[in-house]
Amino acid sequence: MSCYLEILDVAKSYGRVKALDGVTLAVRGGEIYGLLGPNGAGKTTLLKVIVGLLKPDMGTARICGVDVTVDRESALKHVGYVPENPVTFENLTMREFFEFVASLKGIPKDVFEERVETYVSLFQLEESVRKRMGKLSRGTVQKALVVASLMAEPKVLVMDEPTSGMDPEAQHVFREVVKKFADKGAALIISSHQLHAIERFATRIGIINRGKLLAEGTLDEVRRLAEAGFNSTLEEVFLKLVKSH
Ligand SMILES: Nc1ncnc2c1ncn2[C@@H]1O[C@H](COP(=O)(O)OP(=O)(O)OP(=O)(O)O)[C@@H](O)[C@H]1O
Ligand SMILES: [Mg+2]
């Protein structure tokens, strides 16, 4: 069964700063939604609302039909999350971190072992998996967080700049893995500043600025909305939209 992610008219302020100002969007199973926007646009705030880490002042977020603001626990059963500023468990080895995640998610031991082996090999973590999280490089920590978010094979993936710090090969692996999740029916929302990568693998794009969604759709659709040329790059579309708002 695939799942649906809905954000309905969400607003959130931090004091006088309106981080989100009436955002509505939906991500269907099988979609990879690329959430783009300048620094401070509201991406992290929106993703935190989706996973119930922040309560919106207005509006709702629903995961597989369950309102996160009402029943966070059931809503989050289906979700994998990569946070922007991870609280990593400095003194756990990467493997212990994975074991911790597996125990929270109730993943059986044999399934866990199989998944860890697969991802350790895909992301070339053979040496790092034995090291303490606090001693790993930034890109390696990101790999661990991505693997942790995938561990329970969630139906919805919420990823805040998941590939930041990852080397090109790891970014490629990331895209391949994530596409497989979408092919199996997962709904994905991924914030990023890596426009060249998003251009190639997101099925839909949303561009947010100052808490408002400026444009949304396929690359062709956002080109049209931005009145940009038919062969303009996502970067050109992005800059045009953001500069005019
Ligand atoms: N804890 C907080 N307290 C006060 N203001 C905050 C807080 N978190 C975010 N903000 C403000 O809310 C706005 C949106 O921030 P947010 O982190 O959602 O942006 P972002 O799009 O994720 O940016 P970036 O690309 O830099 O990660 C910004 O103006 C930011 O300064
Ligand atoms: Mg952010």
Defining key terms:
binds adenosine-5'-triphosphate, four-stranded antiparallel beta sheet, Rossmann fold, binds magnesium ion, 245 residues, 10 strands, alpha/beta
Summarize it.
The protein has helices at residues 43-50, 72-76, 94-105, 109-122, 138-150, 168-183, 195-201, 219-225, 234-243, and strands at 5-14, 17-27, 32-36, 58-63, 66-67, 79-82, 156-160, 187-191, 204-209, 212-217. It has 245 residues and is an alpha/beta fold.
Low-confidence stretches: none
* CATH-derived topology of the largest domain: Rossmann fold
Mean pLDDT: 95
Global outline: globular
Structurally, the number of domains stands at 2
Q: Order of strands side by side in the largest beta sheet?
A: 6-7-8-3-9-10
List the helices and strands and how they pair.
Blueprint: E1 5-14, E2 17-27, E3 32-36, H1 43-50, E4 58-63, E5 66-67, H2 72-76, E6 79-82, H3 94-105, H4 109-122, H5 138-150, E7 156-160, H6 168-183, E8 187-191, H7 195-201, E9 204-209, E10 212-217, H8 219-225, H9 234-243
Parallel strand pairs: 3-8, 3-9, 6-7, 7-8
Antiparallel strand pairs: 1-2, 1-4, 4-5, 9-10
This protein binds adenosine-5'-triphosphate (ATP) and magnesium ion.
Characterise the protein shown here:
By secondary structure, the chain is of the alpha/beta class. It has 2 domains: 1-78 and 154-245, Rossmann fold (3-Layer(aba) Sandwich); 85-153, no CATH class. Helices cover 38% and strands 24% of the residues. The chain contains 9 helices and 10 strands. It has helices at 43-50, 72-76, 94-105, 109-122, 138-150, 168-183, 195-201, 219-225, 234-243; strands at 5-14, 17-27, 32-36, 58-63, 66-67, 79-82, 156-160, 187-191, 204-209, 212-217. It has a 6-stranded mixed β-sheet, sandwiched between helices. A 4-stranded antiparallel β-sheet has the order 2-1-4-5. α6 links the parallel β7 and β8. The longest helix is centred in the last third of the chain and has 16 residues, at 168-183. The chain is globular, with a radius of gyration of 18 Å. The mean pLDDT is 95. It binds adenosine-5'-triphosphate and magnesium ion. Adenosine-5'-triphosphate is lined by residues 14, 17, 19, 37, 39-45, 84.
